[in-house]
Amino acid sequence: MSAVKTPEQLFEHELQDLYYAEKKLTTVLPKLAEEATDRELSRAFTSHLRETKKHVANLEKVFKQIGKSPEAHPCAGIDGIKKEHDKFVEENDASAEMLDAFLTGAGARTEHYEIAAYTGLVSQARALKEREAVALLQENLKQEKEALKTMEAISKRLLKEANGSSSSGNGKSRA
Q1: How far is residue 118 CA from its own chain's centroid?
Q2: 10 Å Cβ neighbour count for 75?
């Protein structure tokens, strides 16, 4: 894409960025589900993978609605979060409990990034009067906010357990 000079070009650029991020996550989430030893955390990653595939499809519909072909533009934000994960795993001999706690943090950072990106795209789509795009982007945004709540709840539980302040037999056993 050439220099961004119009709101439409900025919208397309941001859409390409988020499209890249969502497509990247379709390859990362299965690996995170495998890495997680906590069953609830693993299931959360697997469940969010299904949603993420729908997010990709919704973004493809938005591209079509604006008369563009879906195109992914490298997203430094999502690549940075992935790089941070890879470096942590490589450099730390973390226990399963600490790795799971780290994964919830990485998941939350990803959701915050996506929530910010979708919020911006919804605002841009509204300004451009792209009503169908607004609806699709809001659908994705809502699911990202729910995924963040899930990550935060799992994180809270895991950290309580790691600190020994959780009662045993809570029904959320480790794999």
Answers
A1: 11
A2: 21
What does each of the 175 residues of the chain score in pLDDT, given as a tens digit? Answer: 578 999 999 999 999 999 999 999 999 999 999 999 999 999 999 999 999 999 999 999 999 999 999 999 999 999 999 999 999 999 999 999 999 999 999 999 999 999 999 999 999 999 999 999 999 999 999 999 999 999 999 999 999 988 875 444 444 444 4
Which tokens is 173 given?
């056993």
Bridge-partner residues for 38, per DSSP? 174
Looking at residue 170, what DSSP letter applies?
-
> What residues pair up with 174 in beta bridges, in sequence order?
38
The helix/strand count (H/E) of the chain reads as 5, 0
Q: Report how far apart, in Å, the C-alpha atoms of 29 and of each of 42, 50, 130, 159 are.
A: 9, 10, 30, 22
Cα gap 36→49, rounded to integer Å: 14
Block residue for tokens 């469940």:
47
Q: Residue 89 carries which side chain, given as an amino acid letter? A: V
